[in-house]
Amino acid sequence: MLPIAESNSHVSLNQESVLRRITARIRQSLELEDIITATTAEVRSLLGTDRVMIYKFHADGSGRVIAESMYENCLPSLLKLNFPADDIPPHARELFLKYKVRSVVNVDTQEIGQSPVRNLETGELIAEEIRYRPVDPCHVEYLRTMGVKSSVIAPIVHEDALWGLLVSHHSQSRVVSAGELEAMQMIVEQLGIAIAQSHLLTQARAKAQREALINRIATLLHSLPTIALQPALEATVAAFAGVGARLCLRNRAIDLQNSHSQSFGECLIPGSNCVQLYTCGQQPVISEPTIYPLIEQYNVWQERYKTHPHELWAINDIYQTPALRTLQPVFQPTKIRSILFIPLEYRQQLLGYLSIFRHEVDTETLWAGQFDPNQKQTFPRMSFNLWRDSKKAQAQQWTNEDIELAKEIAKQFASAIQQHELYQQVQAFNENLEKQIHRRTVELQNTTKQQQAVFGVITKIRESLDTNTIFQTTTKEVCQLIKADRVSVYRFDTDWGGEFVGDFEAASPHWLNESKIGVNLVWNDTYLQKTEGGRYRYNETLAVDDVYRMGFTQCHLDNLEQYQIRAFVLAPIFFGQKLWGLLATYQHTGSRQWQPSEVNFLTQIAAQLGVALQQAELLTQTQQQAEKLTQTLHNLQQTQTQLIQTEKMSSLGQLVAGVAHEINNPVNFIYGNLSHVREYAEDLLTMLELYQQEFPTPSEEILEEADRIDLEFLSKDLPKTLASMQVGVERIRQIVASLRTFSRLDEAEMKDVNIHEGIDSTLMILQHRLKAKPEMAGIKLIKEYGDIPLVECYAGQMNQVFMNVLSNALDALEDDRESQSKQHPGEIIISTTVGQITDRVKSVVIRIKDNGPGMPEEVRARICDPFFTTKPVGKGTGLGLSISYKIVVDKHGGVFKCSSQLGSGTEFWIEIPIQQALFS
């Protein structure tokens, strides 16, 4: 065992001086490279060795020399060279990390000494001498190959992980004192602190850089009335060090006339023209014409987002992803190897895809000698000379930072695209309002002062009853009055966790707001959850002058330090008798002595917030009650409409049935006696003819009477008159039958009905309106009846539907002909077919189409509204089609719809199930 050199007073003073200098130099900078460079130089000066270096571990266990200080050229340089993970065995790493063991190796004596900072059994801090034992021969050969005869290693720990090693090498054998080990221990402890500070600085810079990047992209995206998608896409490619990108969006997906919005999946159907593509940089090559001209139309994306609808897809290597086998050919002509595929969603609605491409790269790693992993340290390497490990066409990995940045950028793109769509829609609506605004400008100018006064009162009412306004006003006023750094509102949830409400956070302009809590941040305090609000439920206000003097647990302090909170006041907000939340006032720039008046002021403000919340709740309840009353009134109006029309149709049905009944008796009498009259007339004429044959020379009186009554004409015309009377009576009987069929008073219940009979009876009643008139041509009626079965329905009500629809068609054709200078050939086509409402419910479809003038969309959309009519006063109540809709849809579970186009006519579609039992 080698002797340990004792430090005398001069050496101790020299070490203290050097240590102070090293510590000062470490603390002078937060830049890691400056820190480690200064450290290696000072440590080598302190120890007087040939080489001091700092070795940093990689995530895979290998490591790299990141700093080195050399004395002349006694040893070869290892700066920037990598060492494999097997060079430092796992048990050695465990000793370095768990017990902070310092290692000393003397090659000449072939001994290794270890000095743990912590006890190997209990883990407690100790100050133990170096304990020597024989060193592994492989380790000795390892150091000899490097030209090293004396080695000292101290572990560098950061965030409870082995970050690296501080290594001292000497080409000659030397004695290592306990004082030198203690000095190295102090230096690595300072290095750990400096690394943590530098890491925080790096994180802050990265965060600031990311936020600046996101802000720049957001500025490009949110520049209404235009949206700079192409520059934003180019900035996104640059942010990810990519070589290309694609932004595939739905285009013209919103139909402002029909208020219909197509999904992005519908827009991606091949042949659709509602997809807009923005590209930047290198793109995949689709060489031959195909039904999928866009890679976004391939099934691989749709299948992926059926199972992972909200996730980004980070594809590190296209050619190692089986799901992309169909897409690999379009990327083979390029060097694109990695894809970051990002769905753009806004409130669960897919707006498009953003794809970012990266090239394959060639990598080169500098190793300290060629390493054979199969040897597993059985034999040391023969040389530590530079060995270049070059690899071609390697995929670039997407990091967690890349994915988080992509999520933030995706939010900006989705929000901007959605806002732009809404902006375009609002612009379209505004164009329709401009004329109305222009007409009312003069009126508004005359009443400006009165309007301003009214608006002022309304604004004050809204400020006092709107929750958002309450929070915004309160936080802003409190922050200004007591000059706090930040004021926020915190709300409890059902399990006594909570979150900061909305973006209602006021901050002092004198404080750099780098740790803003932000929108809806969940901050659950386990103590408050266990005690259901703790002291605050008893209406106590907590004022903390300095968080470090309150005895908080380390976990609580870590949470406060995350947001740089140094002092705070929390005042409870009660909603009635229940604890609702907290008014939180924070000081970040340092501790603060809260004055009793300030604490009392915050308590009173919190109490007023509770009262304001109750008032806002009362307003909400009142509004809800008003909405219920409005709905009730609407229901009453609908009921009244139904009662009016039901009574009207009932009266009409009774009248029609009565008239049909009264006409039926005399008509049947006439019809029954016409045959006898015809026989009598024929007998009389036969008898007259016999008389003429028997007495060919009548008297003068008979001849005069025969001439007066025109006996020859009467004999020929009387049979014709009786035949005409027979036809007329038959016509009257048909009309009576149609009236009875239309009224259906004896068929009020649901039963199987021949729909064709109902249509024909309705047409019989309306026959007079189909005929030609002197002033206009007749209306051509075309029946295209299909082979349909009997339909279970309310026959009278369905006849009412046919009457309303056909009457509207006739009105439209008559009005159109009256407005034309020439005769307009009116035409009505009635067709019936068997259809299918759902997969298992068969139906009958009745389509009634005319070639009238049609109607504009705003009229078509309202034709089924109660009391809505375009007819002059006295010609229509606006109830017919409304009642028809309810009969078909509500009573029969069917479909009642209308399609119309100006100048091309109108078509009504009536569809009801064949069997109502299936519908119910």
TrEMBL record:
It comes from the Bacteria. CDD domains: HisKA (cd00082). Residues 658-916 form the Histidine kinase domain. Residues 619-646 form a coiled coil. Keywords: ATP-binding, Coiled coil, Kinase, Nucleotide-binding, Phosphoprotein, Transferase, Two-component regulatory system. It is an enzyme of class 2 (transferase). The keyword rRNA processing does not apply. Residues 31-190, 466-608 form the Phytochrome chromophore attachment site domain. It catalyses: ATP + protein L-histidine = ADP + protein N-phospho-L-histidine. Its EC number is 2.7.13.3. In the N-terminal section; belongs to the phytochrome family. This is histidine kinase.
